[in-house]
Every structure is written in structure tokens, then in C-alpha cells.
Amino acid sequence: MTKKTKSNNGFTLIELVIAIAMLAFIMTAVSALMGSSVLSFRKNKANISIQNSAQSAYDKLSDTIMQAKRVVIIGYQCSADVDFDNAKPGDAAGGTFTSHYYVPDEATKKELTDSGITETNIIIFSDMSPADKDTKIYIQKMIIDISVPIDEITAVNSSYTESTTGVEVDDKLHAGKKVKINKISDGVYDANDTMRCTFTFDGKNMYYERQYALQIGKNDVMGGSFNENNLFSNVFNYVTSGTTDISGCVATVDSKNGAIGLNLYFYDKKIRYTTNGMVKLRNSDVLENN
Q1: Is the Cα dihedral 124, 127, 130, 136 positive or negative?
Q2: Which pLDDT score, from 0 to 100, does residue 190 have?
Q3: What is the pTM of this model?
Q4: What is the distance in angstroms between the CA of the first residue and the CA of the last residue of the chain?
Q5: CA distance readout (Å), 243 to 98, 105, 224, 234
Q6: Dihedrals φ, ψ of 60, to 5°?
Q7: Which residues contact 127 (CB under 8 A, 6 or more apart)?
Q8: pLDDT for position 213
Q9: Phi and psi (nearest 5°) for 147?
Q10: Domain map of the chain by residue range?
Q11: Per-chain mean pLDDT for the chain
Q12: Rounded distance, CA 48 to CA 40, Å?
């Protein structure tokens, strides 16, 4: 009679070491793949975020410019082009920056000189030569007046002057009553009121503020302010010249054709993004007001 014996042999030490090594290799590969996927996801998310922010800023600027009935640009010319495509936020800018005020007409020029701005720093759009349409303006502030229906006015305050003539509007302070508005803050208004849109660029930030004509005073062409309450975008690329931050909002003005070129440069989480285009104003006489 033959007796069977059971084999109790287990893994040898070498086999165990090989199995552990293979498991470690597989786990390392899976971990690297997961890590790569997470990094890729985060990068794509950051890329989408900056694209959305950039497009939103460009759309707001271009849409407002198209509706303009008056444009004032405060910005810098530089003796050397700023290379925003390769600069990082806060890099030192080369060249010499000179501040200018670009305005549509003599009346606006007078408003500025009356408020203390040196006349030689003010340039009327129609006085720009054809070559000036390629001059880069590094924008500090852009003030754009557009027409809005007077019934969109959100509040009538005590600064208005009642009149027996003029435009009849609802008195927002006294429900059910109507008043006739003829003259407010030295401005005469008709069926279309004016809304002033002010874009201010300060380093990486773009601020956006709206004011109705009812809120605008005499010689207030500068208009607007900026604080955290009207921050619109905070991902602009910028360089520094001395104590001044030059934001990546660069414009060119083609006054003959009533158009403004816009190049916007963004930088966030080491991701760069640029939007550019030529915005045609619907009111052709805004930049060429002869």
C-alpha cells in the first residue's frame, strides 16, 4: 500500500521578494498615473479659469466700447515695447513711460485743463496722425459714456433740479410722483440719460464702475474709483516701472476708422493667456469728431 504525503512547501524567500517588488512597481506606476491625472486636471481647471476670466474682461471692455458716445483714455506711452508675452507679474519694465490723456474733442480737453491737467499732456483723437494708430497705449484708466433709457436710472437723489420743462421721470425717492428734470450737475438731459463706465487698471487688477449722469458732477471726466467692491478681474499680467505698475491692457487707436485695438495679457498660476482684437465703435464720430 502506497501512502500519499501532502506537500506543505510555501513560497520561497526569493519568490516572496520578487512578488513584493512586482507589487511595489505596479503600485508606483498606478500612483504616478493618478498623480499625473490629478496634475493634468488641476492644470486644465486653472487654464479654463483664466480663459473664462480673460474672456469676461475682454467682452466687458469691447461691448462697452462699441456702445460709446464718448471715450477718454488715460494711459502711458513707452519708449520701448513691453514684452508681456514673456514677462512675469512684477518684472521690471524697460523704457521710459509718459502719461497722456486721449480725448474726443476740445470740450473734453477743456474739462481736463479746468481740473488741473497740463494741456500738453492731452491729445485729441482727431489730431493723431495716421502713424499714431500703431502707437501702443498702456491703459491706466478708460472712461466710456454710453446712452441708456432714462427709466433705467436706479435712483434720483436730492441733487436734481426740478423744472416745468424737460423730461418727466419717476421720482425714486417719492413713490408715485413724477418730476421733470432739466439740468443736473451742469448737464442737460433728454430721453436718453448717460451712464459712465470706468475701467481702472492697477497691477493685476481691473476695476469696473458705473455711474449715471445724475451722480456725475461738473469736470468729473476722470470719474470712478477702485476698491474691492468693484474688482472685476485680478489675473492681469503686469510689469513695474519705478513705483508704478503697468497692467497688461494695451490699446491702439485708429481714429480715422473709429476703432480701438485691444490686447489683454493675463497670468495666473504660471499660465499665460492673451486676448486681442479690433473693436469698431457704433458711433463713428466718437474718435473722429471734426
Answers
A1: negative
A2: 43
A3: 0.73
A4: 124
A5: 14, 32, 22, 19
A6: -65, -45
A7: none
A8: 65
A9: -90, 140
A10: 69-154+193-280
A11: 79
A12: 12
